[in-house]
Amino acid sequence: MTGRDLRALFSTNDRQLEAGTVFTNRQGQWQIVQAALGEHLARITGPGFTVEDLEAPRTNVLVFHGVGGIGKTTLSRTLEAALADAEGRPARWGEPSWPTRPALLPVRIDLARSAGTDFERVLLTIRLALATHLGRPLPAFDIALRRYWEHQHPGESLEEYLSRGGLAARFGKALPQQVQSALGDVAQALMLPGTVGGAIGQLTGTLATALRERRQTVRALADCSLLADLLDAEPDVDALSYYPYLLAWELTRLPAEKAVVPVVLLDTFEDTGDRTHRDLERLLQRIVWLMPNAFFIVTGRSRLQWADHALQGQLDYTGPTAWPGLAQQTVPGPRPAGAPGNGRQILIGDFSPQDCDDYLARRLVRDNQPLISAELRTVITDRSHGLPLYLDLAVLRFLELRRTGHTPAPADFDADFPALITRTLADLTPDERHILRSVSLLDAFDLPLATATAGLPHQAAAARLAERPFVRENPYALWPYHLHALIRSTLRTADDATDDRWTDADWQAAAERALTALGEQWHAAPGPSRRLLVGCLRQGLALARDHRLGLAWLTDAAYAYTDDYVWEPLPLPARTESEAGDELATPADALAELLSTLARRQHEHRARTADRLTTILETGLLPAELTEMAVYYRAKAHRDLGQSAASRDGMRQVADGGGRLAPDATRGLAHLARAAGDFPTALTTARALGWPGRGRRVLGDIHFAHGDMGQAATAYAAARTEAEQHGNIGEQAIAQAHLALTYAFADPARAGREISLAEQLLAGLDQRATTLTAQVAALVRDAGAAGPAVDDRSALLRTEITTAGITAAALLLEIALTLHHTLRGDDVAVRNDTARLEELTRNGDYAYYTDIAHFMAGLSTGPSVARWLDEEQATRRRWRDLVTIRRIRLDVPR
Fold first, then answer.
1. 3-state secondary structure of 456
2. Cβ neighbours of residue 384 closer than 8 Å, sequence gap 6 or more
């Protein structure tokens, strides 16, 4: 513990309670400071360094920035203590890596408005720290300071000012004495009569003349090349801002045993001004630039913009050449600062769960035991998202609950803190606050999306907001920006007591703008983008669901999502409290559940899919276009389950409706005709399908069933090419998997290449049935191989197919096994294969698969129920020939 927490102590009558301010970890930041200071010391003690080089790039500043309440001030104070002495350094930080000489002199300055710090006070604080540490005057600076003081504070001595402002209490009264001593020494060197207290103008004028004439009497100051110019300048605040040059010069003249390097910690830097008013920032930057032998650690909410060329004219020194370390991208996490190019702007990250627990355990202690229980600490940690401010507020809530006689329970912390909003909005402009609330509706955003959601005519405010530390950036994401999770949830759910808080109508209007903006981004894409489509769907569905909006463009997007057969998961964020519950209440609820069901069907039994779709349809929430989608995919699930009558009813309903899925439903009817063995009807239907109905693939299925692998391969290859021309990667994968299966029967040597291509196409997709087809193809390719490998693989595959509930895949697997066992001459296994086929086709669907098995095994069959396209004997011969040719290739006896 680094001190007493007075707020906590004054919130309870429990005098046995130990309440301390806690510093937790931040070891990564300490390592960065060590590395940066080590480089700085090596640079300023190396050959060629001079403080009078006013053009060299500056690498003497390190910035820690982060969201309000992340612990920047605590870090600044702990760094000051750690640099001052070993006792102030947390034990886990370890020993510093820099040499003992020159000594480091930490000087922490709080720039918060509440501290009342102006530029005079900043510069005096640095000089007072040196006065206390060195115990000697710094003549060049002290004389210039005395001249400034006489002009700007007439009638008030420096000693009175320091006493009144509290600086004397912090640093003592050595500075006025040292200034007076410096004046006396210079007066004596210039042989000026009398005291110098009332004749500072005469002294500095004479000194400036002597310096220009390089008189021997002032040789101690003659090497300070710009001292005379500073003494001649009007002694105003602007001139004062150049006096740090004199401090830097004096520090270089100290003897080795007195050498010191000031480490100036400037905290709450965001209170120095804003993007329009940079007067104080400009003066502070001059200190940093003119004291290259000092090191500055800046802590604030935002990164320093000094390396931006756009600030030229507002600040004196700008651009990446001037500040190479500040021009780099923000470094997230504890990355050591190597060369300046590694980045000197460090985003302070959230606490880890372990650090959160450590903080809460040590913050309130009674009888040497944590007052907050482990269970409560876990709940608070989970809700904090690692933000220290939340932990602090939770501690105060804990004490408040105890004060009212209530034993704090986990449910008491299932809430947000409005104070987080106040702290977050504190230094934002009205437009930035407006955009912040707007983008809290979005999982992620870019500048155009943020601007459109806010309804503003320009992107400037969004660009400024994006630089704030509570806005996280991932340049590789679809939308690069997202809000800190806790701040986002608090903005959306906590009671907002700020002056410009939003009404419910404001939130609703913003949600409508956000949904419209997402649709416009999707429609405006230069070409089909699956990534953009899925991203817009995820965010759009959540907005429409949570705010009960119309579906608008989401209907078109839903069809685009299903057209490609890719089936990425569409997880939506948890419902807000106002939308709590699992029931389907709005069209957006129903659509979200529909698309989620279609994606999940790749990972669950088709019976579960059919049940889900039935539930959605029974709500009556979907508009006609989307009802058609649910009916169609339920019919597909029924077909996969072998429920042909139900499937046929659904497909017929969609086909007769003439909607977007009518071609797909017609294809479904063709498949059902094939399943019934009615190949002439299936062929007639397939020829009329064209690309919308995927007619070439259906033709391939029909030829495959007849054992005509040549025509089947031609049809599947044409289907794949057609899909490629239309940019439909999902259809490409389906056609390719069936092509691979065809070659696995006809040409095992080539099948390997085709199977590999199918696996490549499936790698980025989520198509369970097609994946199973490719796996069956691999078994067919290896049919007849010696050993148990094929049987073992088939057993695993059968389990997977049963779990999926896909009848067609189960039939293909048994056909593959029939081929394998026929080639191996295992008659018992063949009988088992055909028996399983008979069981799978007991309802009459796909009964011709049993015929195919008998054809391959050379077994006799009864009259076939299938209406073959040519004579049954022709089909029997083609399937039997596949076995014969394979036996010859494998050199297997008949």
1. coil
2. 351, 356, 390, 391, 394, 486
CB burial of residue 244 (10 Å; 0-12, 13-18, 19+): buried
Residue boundaries of the structural domains of the chain: 3-25+351-415, 135-258, 416-498, 503-580, 782-894
User: Cα(591)–Cα(584) distance, rounded to whole angstroms?
Assistant: 10
pLDDT value for 710: 96
Nearest-angstrom CA–CA distance, 629 and 637: 12
Q: Where does 440-529 have alpha helices with state H?
A: 447-454, 460-466, 485-493, 504-523
Structure tokens at 405: 């006689």
Distance from the Cα of residue 626 to its chain's centroid: 33
Angle at 861 between CA 857 and CA 862, to 5 degrees: 175
Other CB atoms within 10 Å distance of the CB of residue 452: 20
Gyration radius of the chain's alpha carbons: 39
Buried b (16+ CB within 10 A) or exposed e, 583-619: ebebbbbbbbbbbbbbbbbbeebbeebbebbeebbee
Domain with residues 416-498, CATH architecture: Orthogonal Bundle (1.10)
CB 2, CB 20: distance < 8 Å? yes
Burial class (CB in 10 A: 0-12, 13-18, 19+), 335: middle
**Which pair of tokens denotes residue 765?**
């997709």
Least confident span in 394-408, 558-572, 693-707 = 394-408
Q: Is the peptide bond before 370 cis (omega within 30 degrees of 0)?
A: no
Buried b (16+ CB within 10 A) or exposed e, 274-285: eeeebebbbbbb
Strand spans (E) along 268-374:
295-300, 331-332, 345-347, 364-366, 369-370
Helix (H, G, I), strand (E, B) or coil at 260: strand
Closest by CA to 281, choosing from 248, 264, 304, 255, is 304
Handedness of CA 70, 72, 78, 83 (dihedral sign): positive
**pLDDT at residue 336, rounded to an integer:** 38
Instruction: Kindly report the three-state secondary structure assignment for every residue of 766-833.
Output: CCHHHHHHHHHHHHHHCCCCCCCHHHHHHHHHHHHHHHHCCHHHHHHHHHHHHHHHHHHCCHHHHHHH
The predicted-structure confidence for 168-208, as pLDDT tens digits, reads as follows: 888 888 888 888 887 787 777 776 654 444 467 667 777 77
Q: Taking a C-beta distance cutoff of 8 angstroms, is the pair 108, 298 a contact?
A: no
Q: How many CB atoms lie within 10 A of CB 737?
A: 29
Cβ(561)–Cβ(533) below 8 Å: yes
The residue among 414, 445, 52 whose CA lies nearest residue 223 is: 52
Where is 17: in which H helix or E strand? strand 17-21
For residue 457, which phi and psi values (nearest 5 degrees)?
-85, -5
DSSP state, 135?
-
Tell me the CA distances in angstroms from 569 to 627, 636, 766, one per residue in order.
21, 19, 9
Q: In this predicted model, which residue has the larger pLDDT, 141 or 497?
A: 141
